[in-house]
Structures are given as structure tokens and as C-alpha cells.
Amino acid sequence: MTSITIFGSGTMGTAIAGIAGNGDNDVQVLGKADAATAVTGDVVVLAVPYGEVAGIVEARRDQLAGKVVIDITNPVDFETFDSLTVPADSSAAAVIAEALPEAKVVKAFNTTFGGTLVAKEVGPIPTTVLIAGDDADAKALVTEVVEAGGLTVIDAGALKRARELEALGFLQITLAAAEKVSWNGGFGVIR
């Protein structure tokens, strides 16, 4: 059993809490009103919009040191839906890793929608969570949590692959916003 703290109680935070709970993990969900509540998880999920991450990092830096931090964000410019808000040679995950050098940052869940996490399928295919990170033990722990919750995992490689994962997430979001794919659908992986 792993202890997991999830920042965010929206669609994605709730879906990830369900996955973690299905795997018999101890889950703590923190919302905006929980600013004074201490982080109890060994794994911390940032299930908030990218614009809120800097505030969490600044306020909780000491509490996040030594933790596995899962970044699920897609740094989309939500005013224009036309670009990512991080430099072209970087990613949200890289920015977070730089801000939290004592944490083990893993990119995960950003290429799936909450509905496909809950349903555990994208159309007729099982939902696959793509992950990236530089720490093998951290990725193994995230894989264990996700698979225990009933989903499939594919390791996309080092944390530098987060840029491609964020581009894929960005494409999926823009297609859904334009009503070309469903918010309960999206991309699936056939192995």
C-alpha cells in the first residue's frame, strides 16, 4: 500500500483518487481550502491546472522534498488554445523538476481524460497511462499504483519525453474543445 496525496478535487483528481483507491492505497485529496493541511503521501499528484502549480510548489517545497511528484498538467494557453506556455525545448514537468530538485518528478495521466480513467477504456481499448521520468524507482512505483488500479502503463522514457507527452495532451484537448473528439474519448494505445 502506498500513501498518495492528490492536489485537486476536479475531474482528474477525482478519477486518479478512484484509481489509487482501487489499488488499496491510502489517499489524501487536498483542495484550495486545505492550505494548512500537511501532505501525508509519499506520492504527490499535481491534479490542478498548470497555472496553479507554482503556488503549490512555493508553499509546499519542504513537504515535497523526497517525494515522488506526479505532474499531470498540460501547460496549454487556455485563452487561445493555440500553444503551450512553456519554452519549446522544455515541458511543465521539466519546470517542476527544476523547482523541486529534491523530488522525483514523473509525468503521467496528461494524455488521458478523466472519463477514460474512470471507464478504464477509450472506446473498445483499455486505457493506457503514458509515463516519463528520470528515476527508475519512482516510475516503478507509479506503474505499480496505476496497474493496481486497473489500468495499463507504458514507460515513454526519460523526463525529457514529457515534452512530447504534453504535445499529445495538448492536441487531444484542442480536438475535444473543438468537438472533434469526445471528452470521454480521446487517444488509445493498441499494443
Automatic annotation (TrEMBL):
Checking InterPro entries in the record gives: NAD(P)-bd_dom_sf (IPR036291), P5C_Rdtase_cat_N (IPR028939), STEAP_metalloreductase (IPR051267)
Q: Which residues belong to any copy of the Pyrroline-5-carboxylate reductase catalytic N-terminal domain?
A: 33-75
Q: Which UniProt keywords apply?
A: Oxidoreductase
One molecular function GO term is: oxidoreductase activity
The record's annotation in Gene3D superfamilies points to: NAD(P)-binding Rossmann-like Domain
- The parts of the chain that form a coiled coil are none
What's the protein called, per UniProt?
Dinucleotide-binding protein
Source organism lineage?
Answer: Bacteria, Bacillati, Actinomycetota, Actinomycetes, Micrococcales
